Amino acid sequence: MDLGINGLRVLVTAGANGIGLEIARAFVREGARVHVCDVDEAALDALATSDPALTRSLCDVADRASVARMFDDALGALGGLDTLVNNAGVAGPTGKVDDINPEDWDRCLAVCLTGQFNCARLAAPHLRQSPNGSIVNLSSLAGRLGFAMRAPYAAAKWGVIGFTKSLAIELGGDGVRVNAILPGLVAGDRQRRVLEAKAQQRGVGFAEMEAIAFSYTSIKDYVTPQQLADHIVFLASPRCRTVSGQAISICGDTQMLA
């Protein structure tokens, strides 16, 4: 299927590894031009060999000065912007609300929610000039369901959905689409660390904690980063020109977060 995005100019935050790198590679395969940013300098340097088509910047999305510098790099490399993928996020602390370090709360919201604002505010003027402008924000199933012992992360991801729906209304008149993706249990190191922390809190083993998590899903398997990337690329294509303001769950039909 030709998605019609050859030459699309794309910025992916936290794009040097994990889900972000899978997203960036999926766009490149469709002929898009992609700039990535990340806080992991070593991972960015490795892209020169593994993914030379990607231009890149060191950036902490929670730091507005860092974001401004990164946008200068991205716009210089791409010559404009058609798609922003707000992928950057952190897992945040695991613990009861009265045990959470307030600094950990602040950092989680600064990256997962305010970081998306920091990027969107600079992207918006350029996306308005695009014939196919779009933003895809990474939320989480934790942005639709409660998530015990993960209050900072859940609060941030619920905020992302409100931010997404508000931006969709605000930018829709300029032809810019804004959507959110809500992953469930995603295969990878971050999900494993989250389940390990939950297992420790509950005093059970990892395998038991994993089984508990999957007991609340219809499809008892992990979501892959490639699945997320495919959906995001499709949302950024002209084939989704009237899809906006949506919070799209990719979660195996999860009814509850353990």
TrEMBL record:
Pfam families per the UniProt record, alphabetical: adh_short_C2
Biological process annotations from GO: fatty acid elongation
Would you tell me the protein name for this molecule? SDR family oxidoreductase
User: Which GO terms of the molecular function aspect are on file?
Assistant: oxidoreductase activity, acting on the CH-OH group of donors, NAD or NADP as acceptor
InterPro entries recorded: NAD(P)-bd_dom_sf, Sc_DH/Rdtase_CS, SDR_fam
The record lists the membrane-crossing segments as none
Give the family per the record: Belongs to the short-chain dehydrogenases/reductases (SDR) family.
Position of the signal peptide: none
Stored PANTHER family = 3-OXOACYL-[ACYL-CARRIER-PROTEIN] REDUCTASE, CHLOROPLASTIC (PTHR42760:SF40), SHORT-CHAIN DEHYDROGENASES/REDUCTASES FAMILY MEMBER (PTHR42760)
